Amino acid sequence: MPTQPLSSFARLVLLAAASASALVLSACSRPEPAQEPVRAVKVLTVGTSGFQSATEFAAEVRPRVESRLGFRVGGKITRRQAELGQRVKAGEVLAQLDPQDYQLAAEVARAQLTAATTNLELAAADFKRYTQLKNQNFISGAELERRETTLKSAQAQFDQARAQLSSQGNQARYTSLVADVSGVVTAIEAEPGQVVSAGAPVVRIAQDGPRDVVFAVPEDKVVAIKPGSEVSVRLWSENRTLSGKVREVAASADPVTRTYAVKVGLDGAAPPPLGATVYVAPQVFSHAGAQVIKLPTSALRQEGGATAVWVLDKASMTLKSQPVQIATADGNEAVVAAGLQPGQLVVVAGVHVLSAGQKVTIYQGKQVVAPANPGPDATKTVATTTPAPAK
Fold first, then answer.
1. Which CATH number covers residue 314?
2. What is this structure's pTM?
């Protein structure tokens, strides 16, 4: 029996059914995941280079001997001749106290000495007279002994009065504060009109002579600094470098900063001025020229509390995390103490968006090629060029 041709309506129905079946099948199947793009990374070939930086400490120039001078007696300051920064000589008067009370005490001691002198002379005359009487057997030996005892007592009172006068005279002289050494006044700690006690600092003097450079080092570095070791001193205000040697290392740490003070004696006849800022580079910390492995800080990341870098396996073009140990810094670069070998490829940018085993490519920088023939001048554009008149 011959088949009847399908009508147009039937063909439309069959086409719609086929489309619906295809939609149902596509909805039931799971879509394929999108492939992660292969990242391009900047890498650096690990190699050794010379260490450039040197360990420096900020320091200050100070006098080797600095004295805090004060009056040996208490009183009210009436005058102060010393000024800050003034150069003084040994024996020069720096300040004075009110001497009236000490002068009165000296006068009292002088009067007591006069009275003791008179008593001594009287006792000596009596003893002489009684000695003659004893020789003539007019008095007993006991009476002569009493006169001798009186003479000795008068002599002791005389010695006491004389010593007292000498002490009071010294007290009066102590009302003048005199420089015991030549130097520079570095501090004034009392003013006229102020009542000070005996021994209270009034003037501070930096003694003339050798000077020290004083700086502080942390606890982990003080063990390496030994007395007598060489030190290079660079002046901040002048373009010159001095040499020196460690003279003294503090036995205990500062209670506030927890650092240790180190004093360096300067060599040479022209030391820097007092209070000048200098930079000290101990030779024991000098590693200039040593061959080390250095990386930019952008290559470092923290992983599990340790420092690590991404190492590229060139055979598989995948990344591997490599822990490293950082020794110190050299300028803006980190010095690697362990964990890397020369020749390895280390990622130096974008390390925080990468993962272990990730496949990457090496980033190739764009190269700008200059045109062989320079273009026309900016003024000779199509808009400004006047067309040639038609012939």
1. 2.40.420.20
2. 0.55
